[in-house]
DNA sequence: CTGAAAGCGCTTACAG
DNA sequence: CTGAAAGCGCTTACAG
């Protein structure tokens, strides 16, 4: 049996489609008696109006595009959870895409959103779009889609686009200061490619803290990987094997931390006795197990909530100036 | 500037809407010259046809509903990843919902899917629907929506509905046998409420293996929690504090394992020296760190892939008999 | 090979 | 308060 339509309901209620529509939307004037009768029949038949037809007719849509690079990374899982918490309440539909950090998939996701005429996009870029051409291209695509966009987590400095970011600079800066305060001077850092904005930002937090304390930075202690565990693991092995190695290491995201801890445990060493670790992001498993690493906490669920709120706000006020929400991080210190 | 329509393209190309439509869909006959011209103009204008209008017109949809209870649990994150891998290739749109294990949200997700006239649903139930009334209700809802459904992971035995499940029974059964084979006789198990089908299934794997080996099962070693870490933690504390405690413990999902390991590490004890642990599901973090627990591996990404394949197949062959895919698990043994 | 027209299931001025 | 009609942006028989 195919789906009922508004026409079926109208017929059965002995009214016109228009009236049924008014009842459904609670719009216009409908006499109480008519309304009741129509509602009754709708209920009886478990009728629910087609979102597709409604969207076409109204020229709007209830869909929000959501795209993240690694949907199986709990960090993004939590963001998504924060988002759904609010979309659910607002009757918004989430179209989810996963890009595996590939530009091509990023592109396809945006095409999909365009075809579906989404009302807004929650976007964590797959790559950093530092390449001039890629960047121009991306900006053009957003121009074409022409709906509100909120960038999450990875700030690629798009003109006139809202965003929600963590204050990673501050997090790393404070973590570094905390280590220095605890007497560490030989501090290493495992970061990603320092050409990339995200990595640069974090690196600056480190450098600033070190310079302010008048502590020289040793080139050999600065490792530039790619934010993934494997790379971090290999870099960490080298670092840990150095003759004169750091007494503390800062890792710049949760994957990096894991790579480091793996290299460490392979040597039969552990934190914080053999070396101190200060990581970015909570790692739930380790925390549960009482692992003594220190971390900079970032509330991903909150990021999700803020992002969708920003988007909804922008949908309501398309003309308002660009807004960026920067979420503070928090140091969780176990032992330095 | 609002979106272009097929009419704009038609006008500019000097043809009718029908022709443009044929070009877009590669359907019907269009002269090569016309086709080329139309394509040219489409490209120039970055035109992409409205999925909404197309869906309404064709009476179909490109959307698949995806609903899981805990989107920030990496297990479901991986399932989702497996799903997107295939939907991306088939130009299917994923509408994601998160239910937090709440029946009410489960219900709302299905309503949403109905309104959006999705073509199919990938469904992990929020609750087990053992309650007769709830169950009837659910079946009725699916009847109303009347599109293919594939249940994932949690088998609630819906009549005539496809599903993809792991062979948890076999996993636990083999794990238990492995423990017995290594000489353990005092084996505990941390499971969920044994009234629930999921838990019962796992429990049976345990019981069967023990009985076949002629080993008596001690009531006190059987803990029934709820598949969450906190509950497991509390139960584990009691278990570990017993005078005559087990030498090995089986934990029935990743959360349960964490709760157990937490209770253990709090006592200053660790696996496998103080007690052996055999868990269901890999825990990436622990593995990376070389933690010596044993686990039953379940390939969640594969579950995602199989589920969407089953759904696509069912969409193509609506009349075919019910199919269930049961994925084998695999023992990963470190030290028993 | 191409176009005019009807239709998908709604919404919304407009008229009464 | 209610309905007839036009329109949203497509697709698809049908006729030529």
TrEMBL record, chains A, B:
SUPFAM superfamilies: lambda repressor-like DNA-binding domains, Periplasmic binding protein-like I
Pfam families: LacI, Peripla_BP_1
Gene3D superfamilies: 3.40.50.2300, lambda repressor-like DNA-binding domains
Entry keyword set: DNA-binding, Repressor, Transcription, Transcription regulation
Coiled coil stretches, renumbered: none
Alphabetized GO MF terms: DNA-binding transcription factor activity; transcription cis-regulatory region binding
SMART domains referenced in this protein's UniProt entry, alphabetically: HTH_LACI
Domain HTH lacI-type: 4-58
Family annotation (InterPro entries): HTH_LacI, Lambda_DNA-bd_dom_sf, Peripla_BP/Lac1_sug-bd_dom, Peripla_BP_I
Cleavable signal peptide: none
PANTHER family: HTH-TYPE TRANSCRIPTIONAL REPRESSOR PURR-RELATED, LACI-RELATED TRANSCRIPTIONAL REPRESSOR
Protein name (Swiss-Prot/TrEMBL): Transcriptional regulators
Species per Swiss-Prot/TrEMBL record: Blautia obeum A2-162
């Amino acid at each position: 049996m195919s789906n009922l339509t508004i026409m079926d309901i109208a017929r059965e209620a002995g009214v016109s489609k228009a009236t049924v529509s008014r009842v459904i939307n609670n719009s216009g004037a409908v006499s109480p008696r008519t309304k009741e009768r129509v509602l009754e029949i709708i209920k009886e038949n478990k009728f629910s109006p087609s979102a597709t037809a409604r969207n076409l007719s109204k020229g709007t849509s209830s869909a929000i595009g959501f795209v993240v690079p690694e949907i199986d990374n709990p960090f993004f899982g939590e963001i998504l959870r924060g988002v759904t918490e609010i979309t659910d309440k607002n009757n918004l539909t989430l179209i989810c895409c996963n890009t595996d950090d590939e530009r091509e998939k990023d592109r396809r996701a945006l095409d999909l959103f365009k075809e579906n005429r989404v009302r807004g996009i929650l976007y964590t870029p797959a790559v950093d779009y530092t390449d001039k051409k890629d960047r121009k291209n991306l900006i053009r695509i957003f121009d074409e889609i022409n709906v509100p966009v909120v960038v999450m987590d990875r700030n690629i400095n798009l003109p006139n686009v809202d965003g929600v970011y963590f204050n990673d600079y501050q997090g790393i800066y404070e973590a570094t200061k905390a280590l220095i305060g605890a007497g560490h001077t030989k501090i290493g850092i495992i970061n990603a490619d320092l050409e990339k904005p995200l990595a640069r930002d974090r690196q600056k937090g480190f450098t600033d803290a070190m310079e302010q304390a008048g502590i020289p930075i040793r080139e050999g202690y600065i490792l530039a990987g790619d934010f993934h565990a494997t790379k971090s693991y290999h870099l960490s092995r080298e670092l840990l094997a150095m003759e004169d190695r750091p007494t503390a290491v800062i890792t710049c995201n949760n994957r990096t931390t894991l790579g480091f801890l793996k290299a460490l445990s392979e040597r039969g060493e552990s934190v914080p006795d053999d070396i101190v670790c200060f990581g970015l992001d909570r790692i739930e498993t380790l925390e549960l197990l009482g692992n003594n690493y220190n971390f900079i906490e970032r509330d991903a669920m909150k990021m999700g909530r803020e992002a969708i709120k920003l988007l909804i706000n922008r949908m309501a006020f398309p003309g308002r100036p660009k807004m960026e929400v920067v979420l503070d991080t928090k140091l969780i210190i176990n032992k330095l």
